[in-house]
Amino acid sequence: MNEFEPKVVAFCCQYCAYSAADLAGSMRLQYSPNVRIVKLMCTGKVDVIHLLKAFEGGADAVFVAG
Amino acid sequence: MIVADRKPFDDIKAMLEGFEKILIVGCGECVSVCMVGGEKEVEILASQLRMAAGKEGKKIEIGEITLERQCDREYLELLKDRINNYDVVVSMACGAGVQFLAEMYDHKIVLPATNTRFIGVTEGEGVWAERCRACSDCVLAETGGICPVTICAKGLLNGPCGGTNDGKCEVDKNKDCAWTLIYNRLDKLGRLDSIREIFPAKRYSVQTRPGRRIHEAFKEKE
Amino acid sequence: MQYAKKLLDEVGIDSRRVEMFNMGASDAQKFTGAADEMTERARELGPNPIRAKKRES
Hints:
The structure holds 3 protein chains of 3 kinds.
Chain A lengths: L7 E6 L3 H10 L8 E6 L7 H9 L4 E5 L1
Parallel strand pairs in A: 1-2, 1-3
Chain B lengths: L1 E5 L2 H7 L5 E7 L2 H4 L5 H17 L5 E7 L5 H4 L11 E4 L3 H10 L4 E4 L1 E11 L2 E6 L15 H4 L26 H12 L33
Parallel strand pairs in B: 2-3, 2-4, 4-5
Antiparallel strand pairs in B: 1-6, 6-7
Chain C lengths: L1 H10 L6 E4 L6 H18 L3 H8 L1
């Protein structure tokens, strides 16, 4: 492994953060390509276990956006 | 309900040092309600242990199961096919559950993941408070439904003591004086007369340890 | 979130790796900001120690 490329998981609410991400795309805003988005109906569904499982699976950073 | 705390992660990890196949057993009763040992907490502990092992490059296998409760043989029996696949069992139940599990499977190492605290109630979201000491000789009828054995720092049956201070306790200023609470409650109920009653010395003789009780209908069988 | 951070710290995974952001549907900049911030944090903290071990073996 020469260059470390972090894997970032984003838990996004379909109605706010996911739309925001979508809009970022339409606006041609540049942002980190390391982010993998998990779309949820609502971030209220996110439980600590989901965050832990993401880290267990090897994520380098995790964020919840909603 | 019985209220418990989860043991610190480092303690649990240290107990499990060297074991590779671990079965974590949750309990669906009290400890589920007080959020220390139910299905969700089993998942969290399993995930934490897997991460800790992964970090050290160790391989571990974790089984997860949550029983209806661990204080009945019928439910513990459900483990019998699975338990032998593991080197060690971690019980997330209260002390009673851990012991009963260990008793039923006495060829297995059974370890506790919780510290059992008290018999209590849910005061608010995520807040539990002790309400009963299981003294085997209830006095709530005379004290307006407030237990001096539990709530009074000194467990006084005839209070308040000289340390009552504007409704607070001399032992801890943040705690209510049980006997002020009792006085106010009795006043509200129009039963203040009962505070004049002097309680005789507490009958500690009924508090045999370990406690055991047999239902009338089953006494013959015993 | 505090709970998740505590659980991760207990295991020895830096709790700065997890965060919560609030934003509205029109907050595109907020989203890209969050994405960049977390990627930057991950770069600073280095690989997730679990992933690093897995790769070694």
